Every structure is written in structure tokens, then in C-alpha cells.
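Recap quiz, item 2
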Amino acid sequence: MLFDADYYPQKDIVEKLVKAFVDPEVGAVQGRVVVLNEPKNLVTRIVALERIGGYRVDHQARENLGLIAQFGGTVGGIRRSLLESLGGWDENILAEDTDITFRIYLAGYKVRYVMDAESYEEAVESWRAYWRQRYRWAKGHMQCAFKHFLSVLKSKNLRFPEKIDALLLLNVYFLPVIVLFSWILSSILLFLKTPLSTPSMMLISIILYSSAGNFAPFFEVAVGGYLDGRTRACWILPLFLLTSLYNILICTKALLDLMMSKLRGEHDNRWIKTMHNGYGNFYIMKAGRNK
Amino acid sequence: MIQIQNSTPILLAAFFLFLVFMFFPTIYELKRPRDAGPRIIVEDNLGLQIISEVLKIEILDADDEEPDSETMAKLMRALAFLPSLEV
């Protein structure tokens, strides 16, 4: 079982998580992360909404549809015999949790998501800490994409829908970079007389972009907030426009750094720790008083 | 292309109004938060149970008596549970 040091697990979380291992095909199990210090400031409130979208909708949808449920490296467990047979954690990858997820699936095992197994975390409290954390996630995820892309395509242990989902999951951190590229390209096309500059073409592009592209996380968080009974918390959802811009910068920087280190033949895998203040007890006591 | 250029100011104005309208609830919720969390299932939380247990411990007068083993065990459990500063 794995938990980060700033996590406050539920009393019966071990029982909730380990029962998934009754199925011999299950290689790892993932529980839900809920932000504890949500009232602290704007950053923690935004991270809390991101977590709601991710764990209430994204993870659960993948679980329900039998697609690639991601093992997040915390609030979860992994079958020890499988981990040993896979050669343990890959220390050259910054997102070792995503890496082990794909190695589990490629080995013919599954990851299960158990939403009612909740653990409470202390989210990052500043934009600087947010950058550092997301930069590490983005870079690590991109490393996994380069490592597993072909293996996923060739795998005989993955069904076709799983392959599609695996490729989407592997490449998710490239999306903000593609968005930036598309903005630059569309700005150029707007001022050029090309067949692509027609109103109908622009309308189709905007609809596609809004529904399946950059706006998809907005829908995800809104649905997650609704299902959690947190519709009022979703009133700050428009601020995700700002975090989208921030994530574009983070992911672009991560990709450029990764490409530069590859060109230089270096392995720049420094782990920049996420700073936490350890105020979790305060919020737990507060929740107890408000009960 | 010509149609887009002619309608650009209208589209921009509409988009700006949409942004302003969209941010009204955001500003209101930030000014008067009514759902800023945390959402936590208190009954099932090990942290709350242990901390509550520790808070019930009476403060001992070190000059008069030695802390008993039961109190020390509770304190040790609570200290072991607290998170480290860096993860």
C-alpha cells in the first residue's frame, strides 16, 4: 500500500482497497484523493476542483468503461509479486506511477479504481508550488509517452478501446502544447486568404475545440461538482481559463526541457519536492467542529 | 473572410460581455464563499479520531508525577501519524 506523507486516509481504507486484489487479474488498485486544505486560498480551491473532476469523473469513467484506470502512486496498492516481476520502479522516470500503470497493463494485468476509498491530501498552496508539481508531472508523463507509445500500439494484451484510451492518456500533457501551436497557426490563417479561413471551417473548428479540446476539463469538473453536490464550488470554474494558460506554459517548458536533454544525451531527472506546511490537522479539526 | 472581418468587432464585444457575465458568480463566490470545503467524511477519518483522543489527555504536572504509559502510547501514535514537511 502507498500513501504520501501528507495524506490522511480513512480508517477502513485498507479493507476497501485490498478487496480488489481478489481478482487475480488486478495488478494495482487506486483510491480517491480529496483536497483537505481547500479553504486556504484560490490555488487550493482550484486544485480541489481539479481533483473532483479527475477522481469523480475521469477515473470513474475509465473504471466503468473498462479502459485504462491510472495508478496514481498514492492512495493505492500494487501486487508485490507483480512489482518484483516487473523489475520494480523505474527511477529514470519522473512519473513512476504512470510508468508502472502502463507496465502493469502491458503485462496483461489491470488497475482498479475504488472511489469510496478516500484519502485527504494537503494541496499545493502557491502558484510556484503548483508550477513545480505540474512541471514534474508533465515531464514525467511525456517520458512515459516516449517510452511506451510503440509498446501500446503493438501490445496483444490490450483491446482496441484500451489502446485508444492508453494513447490518449499517454499524450494528455502534449495537449496544452498542441493548443498553443494551434493558436499560433490559427492566428496566421485568419489573416491569410486560404480555403481554411472560411466561416464554416472556423465554426467547425471552434465547436470541435470547445467540446473535445481545451474545454473538456471544464465539463468534467462541472459534472464532478454536480455529482458531489458541490455545484456552488463550481462557480469559480471560469478561473480555469487562467490555469489553462498557466498549464500551457508549464507543459511547453517541460517538453522543451525534455527535448533539449534528449538532444544533449543527458538524463535530467531531478525530483523537485513539493512543499507542504503540515496544517492538515487544523482542517480535520475544523471539519469535526462543523459536523 | 470578408464576413469575418466585418463581424469581428461585434464578435469581440459579445465575447467580452460573455466573459464579464461569466465571471460574476466567480467573483461573488470568492467574496462570500459558501462552499469552499473541505469535504471530508469525519466519521471514517483516522486522523480526527487520533487527534480527538490526544486532546482528551489531561496535562500532566511533570513535578508531581511521571507520565503514564497509556498517555505516552497515545502521544506516540499521534506523533507517528503527523505528516512530514516535505513529500
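Confidence is low (pLDDT under 50) at residues 55-63 of chain B.
Residues 1-37 of chain B form one domain.
End of item.
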